[in-house]
Amino acid sequence: MNASPDKNIRRLKSHQQLSSTARNSYHAASKNTIAARPVREQLSTQSKTTDSLPTRNRANSDVPMPFERARFQRKPLQHVSNPSNGHARKASLEVTLREGPAPGTKPSASLGVLRHSILTSGVQATKEGMSDYRIYLWLTLLNVAPFATDDYLACIHRGRSPAHDKIANDVFRTLATDTLFKRRVSDASLTRVLNATAWRIYDTQKAIPSETPVIQSSYIQGMNVLSAPMLYAARSEAQAYALLASLLTAHIPTYLTSTLSGVHAGLELIDKILATIQPKLSQFLMSNCLPAKIYAFAPVLTLCACTPPLPEVLKLWDFLFAFGVHLNILCIVAQIVLMKDDILESSSPGKLLRSFPNLRAEEVIRTTLVIVRDLPEDIYAEVVRHGRV
C-alpha cells in the first residue's frame, strides 16, 4: 500500500533536513582517515554482551542477543519527543523520517537515533522485504541530496550509454532465479537505471583532471546486481538511480577503477582479518589454496547482494548504509566465520565456498559487531579507507 502524498512530502522534507547534516559529516570525514571511529564506538557498545564469535552449530538460545532488550520493549507508534529515551522503539525510524527531527533536536542527533534504531529494532517490513520508508532511510544515510526526477529523465533521453552493450548482456542474468525480484523489477527498468548511471559516471570521469583519474569505467560487470536491491526497494527508478550513482561515485569509487583496486584491496583485507581473528581457519584456507580472491570477489563487489534471499540483503544494507559500506568486508568475514566448522570438516572447502549459504542478516550483523570490537585499530582504518582511496 502506497503512502499518502502528504506523508511523502513530509518524508522528503525530513530527508532534506537530515541529508544536509549527513553531507556535512561526510565532508568532514573525508579529511580524517579514521573518521569512522565515532561510528565504530557506537557499534562496539552493541557488542559488549557478546564474549566470543558465534559459530554455526550453536543453538540460538546460546547466542548473545545485543538487541534483545529492545525486542521485548516495543511500544505503540507515537512521536518520540525525546529520541535519547525512545530510540529503541520500533516506530522511531518511521517517525523520524516522516516528521523530521523532533523540535529542539539537532539533525545529527536524529541521525544517531536512526543508526541505533537499525541495530535495536530494524526496519519494519513485510516478509518480502517491502517497506514504505526504507528507501527514504537509505537516501538519508547515503547522504543523497533531494534530487529532481528531470535529471534522471535527461540521462534517459540521451539514449544508449557507451556501456549499453555490456549492460544488455548482464541485465537478463540479474538475480535470474529470484522470483520476488523478477516480479517487481523489469529488465527494461534495470536497463534504464544502469544506462543513466553509466552516463552519470561517464560525465563525472570527464570532469576529473586526466592526471588524477578516480573513476575509469562507466560500467563494470556486477553493477547490475548491485543495483537490484535498490530498484526492488525504491518507489521510483529515479530514486534507485540517485542511490546507485551516489554509492559508486562517493562511497566506493575505487571499485570502478580499471584495475578494480578497491575490490582487490577488500579481498586482501579479508585474508588479513581472518589471519588476525581466526588464525586456524586462515591457515586451513591458505593450505587449500583458498585466498579470498577465489571465493569472495562477487560478495565484495556487490555488497553481498549476490547472496540470497533478497529480503535479508535489504536488512544487511540497512546496517551497511547506517554505519558505512566499508563494513561489507567485515560482514563477509562474519559469514566465513559462521561457516567455520563446516569448512574445517569439509574435504572440499573450495566447493563449499563456491556459493555462500543463504544470508541470515541478523546473525551476520551480530558476528560483525564482535569483529568490529576486537579488530586492531590499524586494520579497521584500512577497512574504512579501502573503497575511497
UniProtKB/TrEMBL annotation:
Database matches in InterPro entries: Rab-GAP-TBC_dom, Rab-GAP_TBC_sf
Biased composition annotated in UniProt, kind: Polar residues: 15-24, 42-60
Domain Rab-GAP TBC: 128-324
Pfam families from the UniProt entry: RabGAP-TBC
Region spans: Disordered: 1-65
Spans traversing the lipid bilayer: none
Record-linked PANTHER family: MITOTIC CHECK POINT PROTEIN BUB2, TBC1 DOMAIN FAMILY MEMBER GTPASE-ACTIVATING PROTEIN
Name assigned to this protein: CDC16 protein
Organism: Lithohypha guttulata
